[in-house]
Design a protein that fits this description.
The chain is α/β, with parallel strands linked by helices. 46% of the residues lie in helices and 9% in strands. The protein has a single domain, classed as Glycoside hydrolase, family 3, N-terminal domain (TIM Barrel), CATH 3.20.20.300. It is built from 14 helices and ten strands. The strands form two sheets. Strands 9-7-5-4-3-2-1-10 form an eight-stranded parallel β-sheet. A two-stranded parallel sheet has the order 6-8.
Length: 400
């Protein structure tokens, strides 16, 4: 009996083993078409977020003083006053002394060129520059027509430069522009770096004093002329001057007496100002202010001594260059001041460069006005900076 039970248990064990084998063989074998299952990807740990740094603001670039500012910083009040002077003379002794003393410029007249060859004129201007502590603005009135200082000498040019209106009638704008280029080339070859031109006045009729020196009685035509000539002069590298602000119109000659203009302001804003605006937009270096009394702007003072006229030029017309007054030796100023030196009045009005002959008296008056506080040093510095920067733009080396 015991042996029978043991046989029964053995049979049950064999049956159980057979069943396990059958279940295991029922699982499908892996094939190429069924790739084995892959394990789930392990999560990659991420770094903790870092605080975002606000970038430092970029510092403003350091603006270094330009050449003119460096030279200005070395100048005394008296030296600044000298830079504001432009001698108007051809007397050799006065011219040489002005150069040695440090005048800002010299305007030469026909006697300085008479009977001289090109080589002799070039030697004269070179000697003046060599004598000057700061290079000079060497200027001349070479308008063409009735006002010529250089080309009247046949040794310097075979025939004098013609009036602009005459040129236009014979050759239009090409002849106007070629004439301006030839004129600039001649003056530069002689050592002259500024031509006090073009004339930007618009006369009222052919009977007016200024008419022979003007291009047209039409302001828009004159504006076109002025802009073209300024562009040619700028391209040539010679300094130019628009004159005579705010416009002569029908005024009398201020060389010989006082002149009055009683036209309304609209006559200027719609007429006389147009050529000046065109010249300013074309890049004119300087503007010369006349001595006529213009009632609608300042009925009490000549334009050259009027703060209001200079304000209009700076603010309303936007001119940022050098302002110079017409020659203070002209009768219109002598009659107005009673013969007293007008340099301080001219500076206070807004002129940067003062054209006159009494340089020593003018420098002394300006220096005393600076020292007393009557003439603010900030205004003087602004004027001298404009003059020095003009010189730099003309290629003059103002470094000590």
């Amino acid at each position: 009996m015991k042996q029978a039970i043991q046989l029964l248990l053995l049979a049950l064990c064999l049956f159980a083993l057979a069943s396990c084998g059958a279940q295991k063989s029922a699982e499908p074998e892996p094939t190429e078409e069924s790739p084995p299952p892959t394990a789930a990807p392990t999560a990659i740990p991420t770094a903790a977020p870092q605080p975002v740094r606000t970038p430092e603001p970029t510092p403003e670039p350091l603006l270094l003083p330009d050449e003119a500012e460096r030279r200005l910083a070395l100048m005394s009040p008296e030296e600044k006053a000298w830079q504001m002077m432009m001698l108007c003379s051809s007397e050799p002794g006065e011219v040489e002394q002005a150069a040695k003393s440090g005048a800002g410029g010299i305007c030469l007249y026909a006697p300085s060129f008479a009977m001289k060859s090109k080589e002799e004129v070039a030697a004269m201007t070179e000697a003046l520059q060599n004598a000057a502590p700061i290079p000079l603005l060497l200027a001349v009135d070479e308008e063409g027509g009735t006002v010529v200082r250089v080309s009247i000498n046949p040794q310097l040019k075979q025939s004098p430069f013609a009036a602009p209106r005459y040129l236009y009638e014979r050759g239009g704008w090409p002849l106007i522009e070629s004439d301006a280029a030839v004129k600039s080339e001649l003056l530069l070859s002689l050592g002259l770096n500024v031509n006090l031109a073009p004339v930007a006045d618009t006369p009222l009729s052919w009977t007016n004093y200024i008419y022979p020196r003007c291009f047209s009685t039409d302001a828009e035509e004159t504006a076109d002329y002025v802009a073209r000539v300024v562009r040619v002069m700028k391209a040539a590298g010679i300094g130019c001057t628009l004159k005579h602000f705010p416009g002569y119109g029908g005024s009398a000659d201020t060389h010989t007496g006082q002149a009055y203009d009683d036209r309304p302001i609209e006559a200027f804003t719609e007429g006389d100002f147009l050529p000046f605006l065109a010249g300013i937009e074309a890049g004119a270096d300087s503007v010369l202010v006349s001595h006529n009394i213009v009632a609608c702007m300042d009925g009490e003072r000549p334009a050259s001594l009027s703060p209001e006229v200079h304000r209009i030029l700076r603010e309303d017309l936007g001119f940022e260059g050098v302002i110079l007054c017409d020659d203070l030796e002209m009768d219109a100023i002598g009659m107005f001041t009673g013969g007293e030196n007008a340099a301080v009045a001219a500076a206070l009005s807004g002129n940067d460069l003062i054209c006159c002959r009494d340089l020593e008296g003018s420098v002394r008056a300006l220096t005393e006005a600076m020292e007393s506080g009557l003439l603010p040093m900030e205004q003087v510095d602004a004027s001298v900076l404009r003059i020095l920067r003009w010189k730099v733009s003309l290629g003059l080396d103002i470094d000590p």
